[in-house]
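Kindly go through the following sequence and its backbone structure tokens. Advise at your convenience whether the structure tokens fit the sequence:

___
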Amino acid sequence: MNSVVALDVGGTLMKGAVVDRDGTARAVEQRPTRRQPDTVDGILAFAADLTAGAGSPAAVGLAVPGIVDEARGVARYSSNLGWRDLPLRDIAADRLGVPVALTHDVRAGGVAEHEFGAARGIDDFLFLPIGTGIAGTVFAGGRPYRGADGMAGEIGHAPVPIGEESCACGQRGCLETYASAAALVRRYGDPGLSAADVVARAEHDPRAAQVLGEAVRALGFALTTYTMLLDPALIVIGGGLADAGETLLAPVRAELSARVTWRVPPRVVRAQLGSSAGRLGAAICAWGLVS
């Protein structure tokens, strides 16, 4: 009973491990996420294999994308995984025979950065992974803030005064439309490149510089609004785009400082835990069931 099983379920890959109380991960493994109607069976089979290998784990933690009702253990909606109002916690607990914690993948990442990473010891911060999309976890008073309907932190769909491009959510001018990794590739116009390629070209390619500059401006607007509303001590940038390091973070800091003129802006730093954050956060939630 000295370990838990943790899975971070993404649209393409599931990342799993057996995790000890100090955060040490063993039996680390990745498997492809199965398509519907086999998605849940794939998750449970992966969790069962890890559980068997762990001997007698104390609990299982599952981090999934979309809209998650953590209190009821229901995966309410995920467009990528194709489910709606799925009682995943109870299904998994019945199959695995151990307590199961269900959490949102981005919230799990924020929990992990708070416990073991860049936000350790900080009670008020924003964890902002920037990947295919943009979502955030708001920490206030040392706890993740969920909001009235569990959807706090959806800063990717905050409007920014950059333009009126359509967003997949149905709105126009969302932050995600200009500043996500997918947006950088789309707006640059070469689907053969990655977002990292676009960022790397910005020093010598005017079109790449324009696309990156507008992404930075969009982030500056959104993070200024967040700062004025919630007064964070720290903003932690994660996700694939954070791999650009100071090429992204330095101009974001400058943009935020230029807009927050009458107070000290929050620090903006890179996440420390990388792709392991969601899995580690799922483990922390699982430990919360038995501690």
Summary: The longest strand covers residues 13-20. The chain has two domains: 3-108+275-290, 121-271. The chain has a mean pLDDT of 94. DSSP finds nine helices and 13 strands in the chain.
